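Need tokens for this chain, all 218 residues.
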Amino acid sequence: MISKLASLGRKGFTLMEMMVVLVIIGILSTYFIVSVPEWIDKGNMTASEQNMSRIYMTLTDYKAGNKNVWPREQGQKFFLSPWRAKIFEHTPQAANMYFSPSLPFEELVGEEEGITIVEYLDDWDSIGPGYTSYAGFSTGGDNAIRASLRKSPGSTTILSDGEWIHRSAMIYMRGDGAVARYNAIDIEEMTGIEYESEDKFYPGPGCGIPQFETVSND
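Here are the structure tokens for all 218 residues:
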């Protein structure tokens, strides 16, 4: 009876139990600290893939209204041509497809205040290197590349991240709308550039990775 009462009257944790709980919490905290950036990165890559798919839809609409011809512009102006042609409504939601969560509009604009994302994209003459988060189709002066896009769109990259902004991969899209990832370890092997270094990998003619030779963020 006394033993039973003592058991019922026991409250709280022993010192040993508290230490075990603290150790478990510490292990879980370390796991989450390490894993959260990776989760965020994967989410941002998925968002970029979705953006590219949306951009592709605008390009197909553009082609449908232009005798099935791709935009003649190059670089960022290539995939922004449907925006300029106003084939869809210019809203902030639509404008956001041109900006990755890893390199958002606010970061690119910097301290330039008082301009909306729509006004920013409407300023066609100001579009230049690094204007959006993405790089667009560029021939680099080689007309055979444009011919390749026309004849074999599935083998030609027309859109990619504008620079190495994701930790584990770069996203790119081919002319048939297929989206793919180029793993970080392969970028490092091909270019000798490490993600954490001060050097940056930018896609474009001469970049050293075939999948990114046909786009430019100019």
